[in-house]
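In the design runs reported in the main text, the only information available to the sequence generator was the tokenized backbone. The following block is the verbatim input for one such run; it is reproduced so that readers can re-run the procedure and compare outputs position by position.
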């Protein structure tokens, strides 16, 4: 069977504006990414996911595109971009581009035309509706604003936006829109990229007639609507066919069964899902519950469609802070979470900085924050009279800026990220938490990620192995214990997500078998011969080969 290259891959996400600033303007840039490719390649990763670099007013950090085929000047030029692609390929890695086709910037020429008059030829490229009862056409919220509708006084109609007012949704019902998007995609593919990460792709279809929502706060009505998969099948046929690429769809709120509609190998839609629940707070046991819910994918659907494994990205706060322990056990916790993500079925995604255990932040003032989602919510809530300090405190843990602070390269000023004034504050812990420090330590988080990724390259069981949970984990909700099996190779993974030691009865299936420790996140290992139980230390992870 012809191997599919991306199934055995590890992905590294580059949020370029916070990666490395080569010209001292305070923003990371494409030249900076080029200069730091050795760091990425040093991990052993295969694919780089580059967040949007297209021309944009940059209100949502590039997710408000005003020209799909020009590079944002603060990121660099198309010539720099071409050099980045060549350098990535020269190192044997692949580059996938983040692409936003659910909406554009309100300054995209398409929207400027569309809003200019009701009979403009591009009017129907966006979603316009008359007022209802003197107000918005329905009661929908958007992700970033109290209403998903904005009145355009000049033409006395409302336009629809799933996110910020400045991000009007394209009207995917319009074949002209679809054709324009497919043509643009093919021009990028013809430049030699290796695929796309498709932003908010589950939102392309909207409910017919735009009916009121029973619960406007429960924003799921914006996603997974009828017609979506018709668009994705057409996109695959019209844009992706014929290219040896990988397409990754970002989709919140999909169950494993729904997920298979996007990426089932017989569906002709996308290759891989980048899925998550958008929860206000998802403590570690909820995250474990979610990973266990995904079990239906691993046990029933795995092999029929591909999935990602991640816990943080540029939207979701640092995993060691949100789901682990970013204090006493930060190093063990970072390694534990990585062990889970790299041993569960799925393609692991590493978000820049995760490989050194970077943590979330708490800035003292709303002025220190950049995230439009957070700032809009802060304005909305304080505008309704909520105490500003209480509002700030409630929004800080989930601010997307938690994961957007600049990469911490070393303990020099600004963590070696910029010689200028950084666009967002550096995390204060950079002096003791940085790449240089990890590179000098054979037991660092970075070194552990290298060993994990090397294990994957040497052992197909991590990619293709059958997954089976060991019921013994249920003795403590912070435990997670499972096996991966491929032919005669069987691995046992033990994880303790708690701050306390946890006793685990050796799983039945280990009886009479030899255990060989392949990788653990504690230097010293305890003797295990013949014992009935083992004690997992706080945030301890172990990968055993069963002989
Ligand atoms: O993080 C979320 C809400 O706070 C998610 O709902 C997220 O905004 C949504 O799933 C889509 O995210 C993507 O599209 C957004 C952009 O702001 C995000 O950075 C991007 O990942 C609009 O383009």
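Verbatim output:
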């Amino acid at each position: 069977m012809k191997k599919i290259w991306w199934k055995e891959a590890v992905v590294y996400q580059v949020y370029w504006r916070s990666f490395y600033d080569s010209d001292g303007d305070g923003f990371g840039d494409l030249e900076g990414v080029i200069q730091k490719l050795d760091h990425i390649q040093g991990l052993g990763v295969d694919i780089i996911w580059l967040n949007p670099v297209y021309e944009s007013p940059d209100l949502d950090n590039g997710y408000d595109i005003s020209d799909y085929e020009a590079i944002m000047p603060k990121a660099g030029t198309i010539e720099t971009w071409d050099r980045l692609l060549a350098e990535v390929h020269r190192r044997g890695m692949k580059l996938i581009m983040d692409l936003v086709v659910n909406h554009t910037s309100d300054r995209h020429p398409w929207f400027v035309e569309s809003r200019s008059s009701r009979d403009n030829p591009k009017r129907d490229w966006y979603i316009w509706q008359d007022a209802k009862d003197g107000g918005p056409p329905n009661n929908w919220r958007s992700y970033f604003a109290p209403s998903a509708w904005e009145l355009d006084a000049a033409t006395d109609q409302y336009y629809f936006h799933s996110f910020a007012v400045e991000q009007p949704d394209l009207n995917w019902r319009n074949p002209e829109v679809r054709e324009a998007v497919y043509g643009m995609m093919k021009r990028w593919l013809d430049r030699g990229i290796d695929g796309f990460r498709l932003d908010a792709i589950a939102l392309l279809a909207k409910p017919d007639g735009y009916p009121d929502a029973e619960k406007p706060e429960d924003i799921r009505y914006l996603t997974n609507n009828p017609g979506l998969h018709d668009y994705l099948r057409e996109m695959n046929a019209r844009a992706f066919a014929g290219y040896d690429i990988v397409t990754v769809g970002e989709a919140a709120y999909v169950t494993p069964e729904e997920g298979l509609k996007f990426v089932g190998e017989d569906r002709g839609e996308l290759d891989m899902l980048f899925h998550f629940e958008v929860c206000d707070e998802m403590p570690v046991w909820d995250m474990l519950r979610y990973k266990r819910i995904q079990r239906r994918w691993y046990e029933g659907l795995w092999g029929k469609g591909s999935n990602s494994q991640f816990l943080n990205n540029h939207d979701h706060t640092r995993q060691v802070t949100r789901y682990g322990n970013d204090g006493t056990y930060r190093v063990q916790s970072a390694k534990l979470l990585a062990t889970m993500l790299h041993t569960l079925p799925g393609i692991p995604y590493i978000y820049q900085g995760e490989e050194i255990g970077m943590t979330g932040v708490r800035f003292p003032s709303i002025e220190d924050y950049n995230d439009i989602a957070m700032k809009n919510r802060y304005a909305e809530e304080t505008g309704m009279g909520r105490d500003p300090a209480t509002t700030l405190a409630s929004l800080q843990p989930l601010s997307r800026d938690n994961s957007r602070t600049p990469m911490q390269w070393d303990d020099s000023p600004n963590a070696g990220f910029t010689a200028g004034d950084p666009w967002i504050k550096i995390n204060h812990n950079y002096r003791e938490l940085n790449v240089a420090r990890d590179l000098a330590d054979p037991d660092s988080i970075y070194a552990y990620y290298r060993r994990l990724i090397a294990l994957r390259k040497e052992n197909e069981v991590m990619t293709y192995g059958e997954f089976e949970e060991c019921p013994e984990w249920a003795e403590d909700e912070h435990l997670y214990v499972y096996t991966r099996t491929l032919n005669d190779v069987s691995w046992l993974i033990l994880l303790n997500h708690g701050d306390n030691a946890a006793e685990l009865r050796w799983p039945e299936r280990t009886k009479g078998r030899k255990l060989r420790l392949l990788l653990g996140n504690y230097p010293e290992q305890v003797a295990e011969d013949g014992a009935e139980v083992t004690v997992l230390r706080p945030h301890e992870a172990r990968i055993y080969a069963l002989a």
